[in-house]
Design brief:
Number of domains: 2
Distance between the termini: 61 Å
Shape: elongated
CATH architecture of the largest domain: 3-Layer(aba) Sandwich
Bound molecules: adenosine-5'-triphosphate, magnesium ion
Strand content: 15-25%
CATH superfamily of the largest domain: HUPs
Structural class: alpha/beta
Number of strands: 15
CATH class of the largest domain: Alpha Beta
Number of helices: 13
Helix content: 25-40%
CATH topology of the largest domain: Rossmann fold
Radius of gyration: 27 Å
Order of helices and strands: EHEEHEHEHEEEEEHEHEHHEHEHHHHE
């Protein structure tokens, strides 16, 4: 029944060159995620038609759901140009899409062929009349309809569409530059990474792994989550930097008072993250912090922790409710992996009473108790980088990526 898909771009308030870059980038992503040379892209001003040429539209829609920068799409049905064929086609479409649901509706028509014998308002009237006569679930509302059936008469054929499938929105991934995502095995950071990509930021990921203090499975979880996120990435690839954090972890446990352990640990993470970000030309750091969630995420903690970096930090979830985060986590297919019960470096050792109001001068004082600079340099130097893609599952023990396995 469906001949093509009409695709509406996301934020096209952009002008001039920016708009061109946006459209080119989105189109490239669409080609890549659909990955079917039979489906042709037909650009018409601010819209795009995907001509299916007999291909399964469900597969194409699945591809479109991985493309950031699209506001919505509609399945389009083709018919002969005479008004009877158009009307019948419109009725079939309404029946199959609405399945008897009661809605208000109107018909809108466009003619790109101006010689067509019936004018647009008259096409609308006739098609609406036919559809109304043959259904009992529609009420006309020309001002604020729930469903708009659009008829387009072109030289080669006539087209009708109603469905509006919501797209991901945002900007095509990559247009905003590159950021480094601090990725743990939890629920939040993969969601933060997804939201960053949705906003146009290409990501690389960094994970601080403390094997053998923590299990190899917890590091594998991070790889699995990166695989899930790579679905949305350009070329379906994400670079993952595995930082050997175990020695720092042990030094923190040995030298830092318990209540400041997490504060200092996170200062160390930020220092390393900034250094890896600069090396890899990432302009911002990204993470899954959400205000108030845990002791290290009070405003005072955040301020003492991020004192160590000058790089901008984007926290896509900073004001999100946990339930909303979980909802997105499920939608992007990460949730089941995220809740697997392996300890990560922040859960293996949970101080009984972490401070929620750390003082900067205390942080300085405690950090001076040990020569962390040496360990930090070593961690950056020994960081291992791997390219992850959902197209090929990576088993962590195969690549020598973590410290744990060699001990
Ligand atoms: P998440 O649910 O994302 O795992 P969390 O609830 O465990 O986070 P924290 O442990 O306070 O919360 O971590 C806050 C953020 O710090 C995480 O969202 C992540 O961005 C980053 N982070 C924490 N641990 C690591 C790690 N081992 N490697 C990389 N980033 C980390
Ligand atoms: Mg969290």
């Amino acid at each position: 029944m469906y001949d093509r898909i009409l695709v509406r771009y996301g934020d096209l308030t952009l002008k001039g060159k920016n708009k061109r870059v946006f459209v080119e980038r989105v189109n490239a992503l669409i080609r890549e995620k659909i990955d079917n040379p039979n489906v042709k892209l037909e650009q018409r001003h601010d819209r795009l038609f995907l001509v299916l040429n007999g291909e399964d539209y469900n597969e194409v829609l699945e591809g479109l759901n991985k493309v950031s920068g699209l506001s919505s799409y509609s399945l389009v049905s083709k018919s002969e140009r005479d008004i009877d064929s158009i009307s019948k086609n419109a009725l079939d479409l309404i029946k199959s899409e609405l399945k008897g649901k009661k809605v208000t509706f109107k018909v809108e028509s466009k003619r790109s062929d101006k010689i067509y014998p019936i004018k647009s308002p008259e096409i609308s009237k006739q098609v609406a009349g036919y559809v109304l006569k043959n259904t009992d679930n529609l009420i006309v509302d020309v001002h604020n309809p729930e469903v708009t059936l659009t008829v387009e008469v072109r030289l080669e054929a006539a087209f009708v569409y109603i469905s509006k499938i919501k797209g991901m929105g945002g900007f095509p991934v990559g247009v905003a530059g590159k950021g480094l995502l601090m990725l743990s095995g939890g629920i939040d950071s993969p969601v933060a990474g997804f939201l960053a990509m949705k906003q146009g930021i290409r990501i690389e990921a960094i994970h601080f792994e403390s094997t053998p203090l923590t299990s190899i499975e917890s590091a594998q979880k991070v790889i699995d989550l990166t695989e899930k996120l790579s679905v949305f990435a350009p070329s379906s690839k994400i670079k993952l930097h595995m930082v050997p954090f175990q020695k720092i972890h042990v030094a923190l446990l040995d030298y830092i008072p318990e209540s400041y352990n997490i504060t200092i640990m996170r200062r160390m993470m930020y220092r390393i993250a900034q250094s890896i970000a600069i090396k890899n030309k990432c302009l911002v750091l990204l993470n899954g912090e959400s205000v108030g969630q845990v002791a290290s995420q009070t405003l005072q903690s955040m301020s003492v922790i991020t004192e160590v970096t000058s790089m901008p930090i984007i926290r896509p979830l900073s004001t999100y409710d946990k339930l909303d985060i979980i909802k997105i986590s499920k939608e992007i297919g990460c949730y089941k992996t995220s809740i697997k019960p392996f300890e990560d470096c922040c859960t293996v050792y949970v101080p009984k009473k972490p401070t929620t109001a750390p003082k900067l001068r205390r942080a300085f004082e405690y950090e001076a108790k040990y020569d962390f600079a040496e360990l930090l340099n070593e961690a950056v130097r020994d960081t291992k980088t791997v390219i992850i893609t959902h197209k090929e599952h990576l088993d962590i023990t195969m690549k020598g990526l973590v410290v744990g396995e060699v001990l």
